[in-house]
Each structure stands twice: as structure tokens, then as C-alpha cells.
Amino acid sequence: KYACSAGVAPPDSEYIEYINLDVHDNGTVDFDHGFYQHGNHILIENSRIYRNAGWGITNSGGNVAGSSYNIYRNNLIYNNGRMGRGPGIGIHASYSASGTPSLNNLDYNNILWGNKTGIVTNNKAHGTKIYNNTVYGNNVGIEVSGAFWGGSQDTIVKNNISYGNGGAQQIVDTGLRTIQSNNLTTNPQFVNAASQDFHLLSTSPAINAGMSLSEVPQDFECTPRPQGSGWDIGADELGPRGSSCGGPPSLPGDLNGDGVRNLLDVRWLIEMLVGSRAKTPAADLDRDGDVDLADC
Q1: Phi and psi dihedrals of 118, rounded to 5?
Q2: Long-range Cβ pairs for the range 250-255 (8 Å, 24+)
Q3: Neighbours of 34 (CB within 10 A)
Q4: DSSP label at 174?
Q5: Is the CB of residue 85 less than 8 Å from the CB of residue 109?
Q6: Is the backbone of residue 288 left (phi > 0), alpha (psi -120 to 50) or beta?
Q7: CA-based angle 72:73:78, to the nearest 5?
Q8: How confident is the prediction for the chain on average, in pLDDT?
Q9: Which pTM value belongs to this model?
Q10: How far apart are the first and last CA of the chain?
Q11: Are 136 and 161 in contact (CB under 8 A)?
């Protein structure tokens, strides 16, 4: 955190796993990303990536042959782009007409809000799979772009919630041979989106409305899929949390989800106790099933 440039920016690399990290408040210009990732077979999971100057995660070719076969899953990615374009996740190859395409990257079970764009693919990104993400309150939701040297090709976009983002379209597609299926762009009925509680209400139209996807056997809290007659759309599967899940890291006491614990969180808790603000699971600090004085 608070790096002068990118937060995590390894040289061209392969077979690295980044798990349970907080990557935030890095950089001063648009190219200072949370993860400035050049490599193949990279895993980024269960991390919080927020308030970086540039992008949350950029999957860029660098000098590696395309930056391919990477997995980005179960992350909370929000409020990136302080100094520029700031997508939550960007999938592309090196910025060269002769560069190698970026192949078969997989993004799933991520929750993205408050970024300039939720998820974007462009610039020779081929075969990207975008599955079961929840994308809310970004300037643009999901963008499959045809820009730069052939743009995105053969992208598959399935089982995503893209709702409440800016612009006329929640999913913007100018790529080649894109496949879209079972995405929800109308009100998904979150528990409390204003408090970043993107669990589904039992009346949600996302429930049992997704496709079966072998790449996504559980949700972002390790609840097995499906719990009903079909996969739920988005990062949440309505049901009990899995018993052996690390899950996206949370900051205990960060009730308003701004990435820090301060007096604003105390105010939120008091407002919940007196009934002027809806109670949220994040405020149940002692995990007894209720928000009460014991959580103070």
C-alpha cells in the first residue's frame, strides 16, 4: 500500500499465486495499478484491491508471450482509477501490432464497484472467460472492446450481474465472436448495495437463472453451486457459507467499506443500534447473529 507507483508489479513471471492480500492506495498516475501483472499462469484470489491510481488488476503482455492462462477470482475490487481510466480488471496483450495475443484468461466470482469500468478486455485478448461476477455502480459495467490490433476475440460472458453502472448498456460489446448468455442487467435485488452487501435476497431474479459452469463450482464465499435447480447469476449463491473458505478478506470494523477503520464506522454502528440505518452482516462483529451492544 501507499507505493509511489504500482502496488504489485513483478517482472515478467509465471506460476505465482497472490492470495488474501490488501492492495490499495498505490500510485500517482494512470499507469500506477494495484496489480501491474505481466505473466502466465498467475492466480490472484481472495484479495481486496481498492483506491489505486490506475487499474485494479491489469493483465498486460509486457515482454511475456501474451500474459495468458491467468485466473482472477473471489476478489473485492473497488474505487480504483483515482488518477485516470481505472478499470477494476483489464485483460489485454502488449501494446504492439506484432505482439502475441493474451489467451484464455478466466475472471470469476469477483465483486466490482466504484471503478471507471468494472471489467474490460481489448487489444488482442483472445478467449477470455468472464463468469459469475457482480459488477455494480461503475462508470461502465462490462466492456468487450474491439479496440487496438483486432481487439477482443472469442470472449465468453456468462452468469454475470452487471447493473446500476453508467451508460445506456450494462454490457458493451464491440469485440469479435463474443458469446453472451445468462447475464442479468436488471435489478438483481441485493440485500443492501448502498452498504456494499451484494448478497442476493430470496426474491432475486438471479436465483437458479444461470448456466452450469464447471469452472465455477462455488461462489465467492465457497457456498457450493448450485443450491437450487441451477447456478445463481453473479458472485453470490444463495445459501450457507462454505465451511472451509478463506473468502475475500474483510477488515474487521470497516462497516462502511471504505478500506479504513475510523470514527465514521463508529457512527455507522450507532446509527444501526438506534434504528436510523439498516443493520448489515459486517456490523455483527461478535458473529452472534445480531447487531447489538455486544458489537461495540
Answers
A1: -70, -70
A2: 250/48, 250/282, 251/22, 251/48, 252/285, 253/285, 254/282, 255/195, 255/280, 255/282, 255/283
A3: 36
A4: -
A5: no
A6: alpha
A7: 85
A8: 85
A9: 0.83
A10: 28
A11: yes
